[in-house]
């Protein structure tokens, strides 16, 4: 059912309702149901199918390379799980380990060297490319731009490349589909096209008096008020990405994240053909997911999309890019023209005469404190947010941690037998070192 | 000047503009000017005089009793400074050290015992009152309510009282007046009745091209766009309390605080006369600023106001009290009737038949992460926020830290020769233990 008010559903009482059928909500729903097969679990979403929100806008980057111990643990176990799903379970995710290539200036490489040992010790496979090697493998790359424009911009030359071997790209919609199908096989339920108005808090026990709940009463979340009626639930999982604070603020719960727009521009054309056939990095013989040197916090990236013979281009900025929730964020052509293109064309002149053939935008939900996701619990409401752009890379771990919180477990077993204390990524006893590789 | 567009002011270029003439803005402006007498400093505010916003709504609590090391340092040095201002400089602040009395259940007292030594070691003077002593000193107190209502609410009996000797009340408007006058003596300037629309970011240097600033340009704040024109400034200080995120979000700066309404109800009447003459706690022979036992996170407090022979009653709640910015927050009579009164009347039956004679409401700017203020810098913009209800108690220290950041000093000398590393209360390298005594 997809329209009108809720019929039998509205009178139904679920053990758990998951708000949001994006990648985090789906991973949560799957692990919840898998660990507790008898639980009645309903996933609801305002869109008319799964993974139609910011998950669909994602660049689908998939990496195990993070500097913070916690991020690394979340990402490595998640990426390893996706590999297992594709290689062992035979479920195609379009997971291509074509690598992440960070092109670094001298100064940035020195910063990397300070964390290099720690990263390697965690089992992250990293390879360093000298500038000469880069120039040889990628003839289209100009490692030391020297034009007038590059001087005005203040570009520094590339010193070395840091290559993450076990990174790559994945199709977010296929990862979503995997979780969705598994969840359905376990008799998990979906309800689409339904908008949550608010989460209802009730006194527990209720006294049957006016104006309850009182401030001094024990309170719990009793369900979800929607545009199609009330859905009662014993537990609520909020996995609504950039909408999370819209749901939690009215309840007095601060999720400490804010939405920020990120845009992707698709570029294709004959001048890019050689770049699409770059050898020496991976068996895919394609340019890795490549990050140009940051210029005052502004970082341009290039993501190959072999199937459509194109590159997706994006960038991250910080100061000056507003925090704002938007229902329909759009990509700004000027952003490509004035911000991305001047830098991209200097390091990769083959892009100089091409214009994006299309573009789209989504919202990051940014945790400005440490750039690492938050999974926390307030009463019987569990929320998983703040992925700060690496939701795909960490979704599986977040789903497992949300499930562990539900089960009252202090420790979560992630894929590959790695363990994490759930409270580390909660807000009350947060123990996260700040992530440096936020892209 | 108070109306119309800016005349000569708009063409004037200030070394520093402080947004917000509340207690934090004023303390900042004063210390800034005092440390840098040649600086041209302008304080602007949307109200028509200083300290008319949330500073005016404050309960004026003034305490050195905090559990976190950082909060304690900020508060002790600030309260000591106010004492110095009143006792040594002869500037009346209506500072009355009538003490803070926390009425604790057995469980809460055990929690207090875990931090007691640490607090005492910091020089905080604390006295423990046994239940019998409390009952004798405060005949109006019922330490072990046993009515039907108290059972329904789930009140636990008071086990002991923890009394902070060097705590009390102060008139926020007089502290504000002190800073205002000192700042004026140093030739600091004010502009009232002016609303900030946005902070302007400019490329530095500018290229004179369209659509600047570009994401890759060096950027700095160049001034403040107001309803009365542009004010240019080399540095901007944001001390706008609950409005801070409204100013900083559009610039992509997350101040990690959210506003939450707090209400105060003034109650007076003959049944309270004995309470107003409570002996044995301070030379003021009045009930201390008293905190009733928390009931599921809900804490009612009583603040004596001798001059008007009344008590101010307030409470703090958490879950269920929404985060919301409101231009004109108002007190809800139902909140007193259904939430505060049932608890207040059980422990202090003398309040049972009285109704508030008036009430008001303001906004806390809450840092949900650790309940401790944030002073941080982004480019040439410094913001001081997140006082979480203890702005008066910490304002002086925050003003000094903001000034130290401006001066590029890593260490701040607080009043009484205490020192703090400014970055500890910034966001990037935050090193704050969570405050337990948020009221």
List the helices and strands and how they pair.
Two copies of one chain form a homodimer.
Chain A: H1 8-11, E1 13-19, H2 23-35, E2 41-45, H3 54-57, E3 61-62, H4 69-87, E4 100-104, H5 106-121, E5 126-130, H6 131-137, H7 148-153, E6 160-164, E7 168-169, H8 172-185, E8 189-192, E9 196-203, E10 219-226, E11 229-238, H9 244-248, E12 258-268, E13 289-291, E14 299-305, E15 310-316, H10 333-347, E16 358-366, E17 374-378, E18 381-385, H11 391-406, E19 411-413, E20 419-421
Helix pairs in contact in A: 2-8, 2-11, 4-11
What fraction of residues of chain A sit in β-strands?
25-35%
Given as residue ranges, the uncertain stretches of chain A (5+ residues, pLDDT < 50) are none
Q: Shape of chain A from CA axes?
A: elongated
How many H/I helices of chain A?
11
Our Rg estimate of chain A from Cα atoms comes to: 23 Å
The portion of residues assigned to helices of chain A is 25-40%
Largest interface, counted with CB-CB under 8 A? A-B, 50 and 49 residues
What's the rounded overall pLDDT mean of chain A? Answer: 94
Terminal Cα span of chain A:
39 Å
Q: What's the multimeric state?
A: homodimer
